[in-house]
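Retro notes - structure team

What went well: the batch runner handled both jobs without manual restarts.
What didn't: labels got mixed up in the shared folder, which is why I'm recording both outputs here explicitly, each with its sequence directly above its tokens.

Job 1
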Amino acid sequence: MAALKQDGRASITRLAQMLGQSRATVQARLDRLVQSGAIERFTIDLNPALDVELIRAVTMIELEGILTRSVTRTLKRMDAVMSLHSTNGTWDLVAHIETANLPEFDRVLREIREIKGVLNSETSLLLNSVSG
């Protein structure tokens, strides 16, 4: 998995070369990682400076305790949820959300609020990256 973390775009052939393994061995290992859930999805990270139209936000979510696992599973299946974190304090989860436009963003927020077990949420749009 370390080789994939270094270069998520590497082909099976390239990964096999990097690891000193056969292509078939690497393909079988990758298939097992996906089937076991160790690898949940394949994605890319875009340079945020080049995608000014993308809507980014963090949503803090309060849960009904007995439905935590169910809500978490539902959120993890949503394409717009880039990452999901448990936290302490008032909020139980923090979701990083990205959508292509405001109508899609509105739809995603509505879907989150309608999940059985979500008691409350608060969302903040990410306006600009601050470097320091």
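Job 2
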Amino acid sequence: MPSTGKSRASAGDLLQLRDAALQLGVSFPTIKQWIYKKKLRSIQTAGGHHRIPQREVDKLLFRTRGKTEKEREQVIRRVSGRNQLVGRIESVRISGLMAEVKISIGGQQITSIITASSAREMQLKKGQTAAALIKATEVMIIRV
């Protein structure tokens, strides 16, 4: 995807290359190569620095969490469920015995209610990468 000069995104939606690399679990040079090869869309500042929209990072989270295909498979196979969606934690709100965790996945949001002790034990914080494991006996499809 090509690099563009202007963006409507707010400054909070744009990441420095090192921050994007950290979230994706790849090196700084890898991020730069992805930009140059147009595999990752970036926005250039007036000073010529690249910034990565958070949405671009969110799209790549699942594909990059392990450095190799085998490592990615091992991350998923730690539990029996296959309906896992990887994203970024948007918010964690703890109240009493419960916690509300919102995860952004490819521009969409999933909200989960878990115990407060689980949220604390996992040390969930805004900006971290997490997976939503969906366990249901039925999945309904709605044509939109």
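One thing worth noting from job 2: The first helix runs from residue 17 to 24.
We'll revisit the folder naming next retro.
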